[in-house]
Amino acid sequence: MNKFIAILTCIFSMLINLPYLAIAAEDKETSEEIIFEPLTVKATKLEVKDTEATFASEIYTHEEIVESGATSLYDFLNQNTSVIAQPNFGNPFQQSLDLRGFGLSKGFESVVISVNGRKVNNIDLAPQNLSFIPLKNIERIEITKGSGSVIYGDGATAGSIQIYTRDSTETRIGASGGNFGRYTTSINTGYSFDKLKFSAFGDTYNQRGFSDPGPDGNRDKAERTSYKVKLEYNPNNSSELFIEKEATDLEYRYPNALTQATFESNPDSSFKTTVGATTFTHQLEDSDNINLGGKTKLGEHFEASFNYFHHDKSVVFSSSSSNSLRVYDTDIFDGNIKYLNGPWTVIAGGQSWDGERRCDNCFTIGTATKKNTGLFVQGYYDFSSTTLSLGARKEWIDFSFNSNNDNESFESFDIGVNHSLNDQLSLFSNFNYAFQTPDVDMFFDSSGNFNGFIETATVKTLNIGLNHLTKKNKIKLTIFGSKLEDEIFFNPVTFKNTNIDRSSKYGIELQNKYSYNKSLSFSINYAYIRAIIDREDSNLNCTNRCSGNEIPGVSNHNLTFGINYDLTESSRIVLAQNYRSDSYSLNDFANSLSQKNKAYIRTDLSYKYSFKKANGEKLLNGWGFSPSQIDFSAKVENLFERSQGVWLKDDAVWPTNFTRNFIFGADFKF
């Protein structure tokens, strides 16, 4: 932590001189066209400019997302943001997420993800499923780092990710195809009439598989089909009611863990670490959701909203040695009231989250439940150049498995300040206290035996940062430090989920967007992170209680770099470069194994051409059903065909992103 204090001192000395740099930049660029402007962030469900926010954030608009060249939401997060996305032991649809050094093994448990304000974290150990959200249907992505525990409660220890979708009534039809049998289809349509609006989309994804066939002739192939329909009713200009139904069906096969020698010589092998050639684990998953809600104004200064969500999911695992069926049900209710009056903005509300896991053919048969109930209040007061924020939350949690019961209550709070030194430069700081309770699957060991209830993790985080905005450049810089008690992890020695007694994380985050001119722009996102075990008394084969050891699966250096260049008014080329330094294998808490996660390096190149008429007319005059625009795209993923993998331990490597992929697509707008 002394290193972190030294870093703080250096950064503060830099901040003293930044106002003068900002003034000089302003004088130099007064004649240039304004390109970058503050963006609205709604992470606290209250709108505020990102340059005036009291917390660290990243914001990506619909235009930035579409023009990034990414082919999926996971692809965009991994190639453009500070969030690390990695296939979860071969699962491309529910990828592991890591933010601020919580690790590839359990990091997704420490991030709350919401879609249109609705929390989508699972009751089980599966990462949040984001594959069903079409990239082109996303209006905005907000990443809140080291904050979010007041609004979202349980699990927002590293931060939160807010995804807002578009309910467009325009009709779009798209398709793409590539090597390894990959192809996609999608349709988006809708209709608006007076006070009613209907929107719907559906899409499919298929891949033949990247690995060699197993003994049964099957590769690590995958299929997904999903759809969503929504009906919205606006009785007046200040009220809204909606209901939506969505469903997703998945079928995929996991690749096997390889020895390092096999991985280096043939990463697409179907051999298993200790067995030899074997079939891939087969998984089927069905998910059905229904969501309804609304909002209305209550007088001049008040606004109320509510949301109810029901989620059903069934998962079947099938391997050469066993089969299991698990059924999950979740009910979520969220309601709040906002007060907006001059410099005051306040939101108060409550949420309930009721989840259940049933398994009749597991090693330990029974039903596990987890029920969360929370109340919160968050407020802002805006002075002329200074914004103050304060929020608090109380949450009650009940666990049960058959005749075993446990209940706890926790508080979280956040206090922050943002001060604008001038039109270009603002400084911010906030202190956040958060907690994370275990999900129900953590009650069981690797053999399926009931493990017992484990402790809740608590995190104290301090953020200090700045926003520097000029007419061609936008910089966000944050330094942070977190102290954790009872961080949740899987002990590879005892094969049980348990807690690290004391741990800490600290680092520096830099996000920079620079526009050279209207045709050429650059973006960079860099994070230096240290995740350290301060003390752990359980058996991890460590010396000195693991004090000073690094958390496995956390890279110290994470960098994404992008170049966007408009070749013509209708065409664009995008180069995306991703780099993560090496890290200890996921089970190596003793930092003693000979094999590590090697550095992750991936280069993507994409091209897009838009065919449309300048006046917006139909491309085929005289045709009743003619597109007004056609977008053609081509992309090369992993241009230099570098083999990537996730090391669990020595000679247990799950290969990921080890092929060079080509994708060609077309999107028709009507």
Spell out the key features of this protein.
Maltoporin, Chain A, 7% helix, 670 residues, 22-stranded antiparallel barrel, single chain, mainly beta, disordered N terminus
Describe the 3D structure.
- By secondary structure, this protein is mainly β.
- Helix content is 7%, strand content 56%.
- The chain has one domain: TonB-dependent receptor, beta-barrel domain (Maltoporin, Chain A).
- The radius of gyration is 25 Å and the shape is globular.
- Residues 1-32 have low confidence and may be disordered.
Number of helices: 5
Instruction: Indicate the radius of gyration in whole angstroms.
Output: 25 Å
Q: Could you say which structural class the secondary elements and strand pairing correspond to?
A: mainly beta
Report the span from N to C terminus. 57 Å
Low-confidence stretches: 1-32
CATH topology: Maltoporin, Chain A
CATH superfamily heading: TonB-dependent receptor, beta-barrel domain
Largest sheet: 22 strands, antiparallel, barrel
The share of residues in extended strands comes to: over 45%
Mean pLDDT: 88
- The global form is globular
The total strand number stands at 37
Count of discrete structural domains: 1
CATH architecture descriptor = Beta Barrel
| CATH first level | Mainly Beta
Residues in helices, as a percent range: under 10%
